[in-house]
Amino acid sequence: MNLGEKIKLLRKKRGVSQEHLAERLGISFQAVSKWETGATLPDVALIPAIASFFGVSTDELFDFDVYGIGKKVDAVVDEWKKYLDSNPEKAEEIIRGALETYPGNEVLLNCLLSSLQLPERAEEAIEIGRQLAENAEDDAVRIEAYCITAEAYRAIGEKAMCREYVDKIPETYNSSLYVKAHLLDGEESFEAAVKEKCLCFEHLVRMLIILSDRYVERGERDNAIKSLETLKKLAEAFRDDPASDYTTSCYDPELFESTEQKLKSL
């Protein structure tokens, strides 16, 4: 049962009209009608008031089995990841389909946000990113929204707004993966360690590329070349990096080739 159907069922059980419900909520009866036909959904801010009017919890209003929904959303995300790099259109289709079943789910919205190509779809990314930045309960989702919203603003030349969202991102010194790798044992430590390794590798690669570009802007060509030479060595050092049950290998032949091309351009 979707949210509109649930509202209609509860309204009829209470024996109230669409007009009465609308009056109590301070909206038009046409809005209630659209909810019940599935044409639109209530504004998030109205959900507590609707639940209160009918004397139910928000979980009951949504017919939520939180644990069961979480498992289903996790399965959707796993499927989305399979296509994110190879077939982004398919990946987006998977997420949009799931959002029809679980509208407003912040994990799914975060996946959709990550699927949008910039700068082509910057405006849509900004709309979703701002929604998550303001409303997401999960810290990781909210911080990811800050990052992508800032990136989207930068893509359309809105540097002031980009800086505003960058400034919302908290400084972190130890990630949860780093701490888990150090303090837990066995498979939990292993999983955290291989994931943290891949993240650290990705971050270092990005920083070396950015530093090379900044050195060029500063007129420091030699330092730009040194950064790229370091990147080449790093890429080569990870040639035999093993994959795991949790990650792919960090080695990427395309990274080595693109670094070579960048060096030639200098």
Compact overview of the structure:
The chain contains 15 helices and no strands. It has 266 residues and is mainly α.
Helix content: over 70%
Give the name of the CATH architecture of the largest domain: Alpha Horseshoe
- Measured between the Cα atoms of the first and last residue, the distance is 61 Å
Class of the largest domain in CATH?
Mainly Alpha
Supply the number of helical segments: 15
Characterize the structure shown:
The protein has helices at residues 3-14, 18-25, 29-37, 47-54, 58-61, 66-84, 88-101, 106-115, 122-135, 139-155, 159-166, 176-183, 186-217, 221-237, 253-265. The protein is mainly α and 266 residues long. It has 3 domains: 3-61, 434 Repressor (Amino-terminal Domain) (Orthogonal Bundle), CATH 1.10.260; 66-166, Tetratricopeptide repeat domain (Serine Threonine Protein Phosphatase 5, Tetratricopeptide repeat, Alpha Horseshoe); 177-265.
